[in-house]
Design goal:
This protein is α+β, with helices and mostly antiparallel strands. It contains nine helices and five strands. The protein has a five-stranded antiparallel beta sheet with strand order 1-2-3-4-5. A hairpin with a 2-residue loop joins strand 4 and strand 5. Mean pLDDT is about 80; it is low at about 1-20 and about 25-30.
Length: about 210
């Protein structure tokens, strides 16, 4: 994975740590599908990571593998992360001024940015010491659950809390993440609002420049 990680990028360091997202300790094979409907939120947080680590090991070739690597990461995250919900939440009050086409385009760009940031950062955390708190009383009957986790890496400790929500189809999806008290969704929403002010409310310009702004 060395060649991929040498690609130039400007990921926020805490975001890379945060989207070491779904870090866990389950021992599953990479070819076993991740099923958001059959797994509990805690099982999902554990299970996805092992699959990710296997992907990191698989794509250890030259830069020609980069896009294939991103695609492999996205295919695993897609069933687990509600990119559409998060993107709409990030747009905040500007969502009502956007067309359906603009919302769809922002969702695509937002998804790509998160996937690539995560893909570039995950290899750095494969040797972390990770622990996940057991389910809380009442989690079994709730459709929104926080999965708390602690990641120790290179002398630093990160406390993460994943907000998992169950949709109408019964699938559990990640809809937000808090790292050491920093709410990822709110941070992105603030960035979108600032960009909207910068471009005088022009949503198209915000979308076109989103990856550079963050």
């Amino acid at each position: 994975m060395t060649s991929v990680l040498k690609l130039k990028s400007r990921p926020v360091r805490w975001l890379a740590a945060a989207f070491a997202c779904l870090l866990g300790t389950a021992a599953v094979a990479a070819d076993e599908p991740v099923d958001p409907k059959q797994e509990t939120p805690h099982e999902l947080v554990e299970e996805v990571t092992e699959v990710m680590f296997d992907i990191v090991k698989e794509y250890d070739g030259g830069e020609d593998d980069t896009q294939a690597y991103y695609q492999a990461i996205e295919e695993v995250l897609d069933p687990v992360v509600d990119f559409s919900f998060i993107a709409r939440a990030v747009m905040g009050s500007h969502r009502k001024d956007a067309t359906d086409e603009q919302v769809e385009e922002f969702t695509k760009i937002f998804r790509r940015g998160l996937v690539e940031t995560y893909a570039k950062g995950i290899a750095s955390y494969t040797d972390s010491e990770i622990s996940i708190a057991p389910p809380k009383e009442g989690d079994k009957d709730s459709r929104r659950v926080s999965v708390d986790q602690e990641v120790k890496h290179d002398g630093s400790t990160y406390k993460l809390s994943y907000t998992m929500a169950q949709n109408r189809s019964g699938e559990w999806k990640l809809i937000n993440l808090v790292l050491d008290g920093v709410n990822l969704g709110r941070s992105f929403r603030s960035q979108f609002s600032q960009a909207a002010k910068k471009y005088d409310g022009d949503v198209d310009k915000v979308i076109d420049n989103w990856l550079d702004e963050v």
